[in-house]
Amino acid sequence: MKENEEIEVLSLEDDSKTSNTPVKEANEKKALTRTSKYENLIEEVEDDSPKEGNKKKEKKKNEKENKEVEDKNMAKKKKLKFKKGLGQTIFCLISFLFMMGCFIFYGSRAIHYYKIYNPKGSDTVPLATSIMKNASIVYEGSGVYKEAGNYIYKGEDVNNYIRFSNLTWRITKISTDNSVEIVLDDPINVMALDSSSADFKDSDVSKYLNEDFAAYLDTSKLDKTVVCEDEISNLNRLSCNTSNVDHYVKLPDISTFLNSMAETTYMASDTDTLWLANKKSDKEAWYASGYNISSSDVTEFYGIKPVVVLKSTNVLVSGTGTKEDPFTIEKQENKLKFGSYVTIGEDTWVVYKEEDGNLRLTLAELDTSVRTRQFSTDSNVYDPNDTGSIASYLNSYYYEDIAYKDLLVEANWYTGEYKTSYEDVYDSEVKAYVGMLNAADFKFGSFNDYYYLTTPAGEDLVYIYASGLLESDITAYEYYRPAIVIKDDVQIQSGSGTKENPFVLEV
User: Fold this and answer.
1) What is the torsional sign of CA 100, 105, 107, 111?
2) Residue 339: what pLDDT?
3) Same domain, 142 and 217
4) What is the rounded distance in angstroms from the CA atom of residue 120 to the CA atom of residue 117?
5) Alpha carbon 248 to chain centroid, angstroms
6) Are 138 and 211 contained in the same domain?
7) Does 306 lie in the same domain as 194?
8) Which ranges in 180-272 belong to alpha helices (H)?
């Protein structure tokens, strides 16, 4: 039994071995199969990796392309945005500049008109408004007339006195633009209009007024005047189709003179002769003779009355327009200057010229109580060394009687002959302490009595001055009007410098 058992056991083991072989193989196969599948899996993964890489590359490529597209689109958007922004900026800039231009233009206009009606440093209204505020319009006789919006002064007895640049003027017209035209109360001289031309702009008188006379005016307060250049051949057909505005000073024109008439006029007396600014022909011009208008050759000697136009921005400082209390547009200065009247000792003088720190003065009024004298017995040249002459007398006896001779300065007195122009008088000169006026000097005061000038008028002839410039024989007995020169640093005690209230100097 044991053998059998052993046999059986052995059999079992053999069987097991026998039977295990296929199992092992199977297991081995099974294991191989698993390994193979794993390997296959690995192979599949390895096989799939290139495709996946391609996909990634393609994906990256696509992403890169998309990014490039997006970048391009972004760049386009930025470019469009920039252009749009630039356009908006330019538009805004143009709009800003336009608005600023409008602001500056309309702002400047507003300031311009504000200055007209609210002058700097003044709480008052414009001069024209102040004057007309208390004026009464009249329809006949002397007074203020309203014509075409302008206010015109007519007649002789009218309160139109005004002070400007230390001189007394008369208002001729207040225009619609509030400018004020004025004419000097007295003639400033007697002259030929010119040696050949009747055109005011080219005349000797125009040069005299706009160079010599205008030097004493405050032109910042003036507008340029309108000078009519039309040739007026008939007083019934006045015109002004051609004009210029090149001058600050002109002569009265025909219209101004006629408009000042109300039977009489403040512009001239019945004995005055005044040049007017209008020409009749190339060598003939119009002038006023008394209250009438006539024409004459331009070489004749007639009175010179300057006309200027005050700006509308001027304001009234004081005055009522009367002769004693004229309108004023400037504050009074306590200083001697052109046009000032001054009392020294017992004599009253008027300043007719300023030069190099000196003042030239002539007696304000003729002393008609003194005996008339000859100019000379043998020469028409003003010369203190000419014994017996007016020059010798003034620089000896007259000079010695001056109580304030220490104020006087020895100066040059001009003795040139008046030929074709007022400037001819400066061709020669002589030194002296006391002199007389020459033909070119400005003359204050209107005199009916003739007095000598230092200007020769031809052989043995010399000019005398009154309402006209006339020739006189040197041996004729005429009045004389002394002139002196003093320093401009003299001390003033009192007075206002007007003819009615002269400055008084310390002596």
Assistant:
1) positive
2) 96
3) yes
4) 10
5) 11
6) yes
7) yes
8) 204-207, 254-259
Collapsing DSSP to helix, strand or coil, 445 comes out as coil
* 141, 142, 146, 147 alpha-carbon torsion, rounded to 10°: 70
Domain range for residue 288? 127-310
Among 407, 426, 417, 371, residue whose Cα is nearest residue 484: 407
Q: Alpha carbon of 459 to those of 192, 195, 321, 417, 472: distances in Å?
A: 20, 20, 48, 10, 11
433-457 per-residue burial string, b: 16 or more CB within 10 A, e: under 16: bbbbbbbbbbbbeebeebbbbbbbb
Nearest to 171, CA basis, from 149, 190, 145, 191: 145
Higher-confidence residue of 367 and 148: namely 148
β-strand partners of 58: none
185, 198, 125: which is closest to 159 by C-alpha? 185
Question: From CA 108, how far away is CA 341, in angstroms rounded?
Answer: 43
DSSP string of 324-356, one letter each residue? SS-EESS---SS--TT-EEEETTEEEEEEEEET
Mapped onto helix, strand or coil, the DSSP state of residue 360 is strand
Which residue's structure tokens are 């190099």? 356
How far lies 501's CA from each of 87, 350, 498, in Å?
74, 12, 5
pLDDT exceeds 80 at position 432: yes
**C-alpha span between 44 and 433 (Å, rounded):** 138
For the whole model, what pTM was predicted? 0.75
Over residues 267-285, the pLDDT tens digits come to 998 888 999 999 999 999 9
The number of domains in the chain is 3
Question: For 81-127, how does the pLDDT look when each residue is reduced to its tens digit (9 = 90+)?
Answer: 555 566 677 777 787 787 777 778 766 665 654 444 444 434 568 99
Question: Residue 65 carries which side chain, given as an amino acid letter?
Answer: E
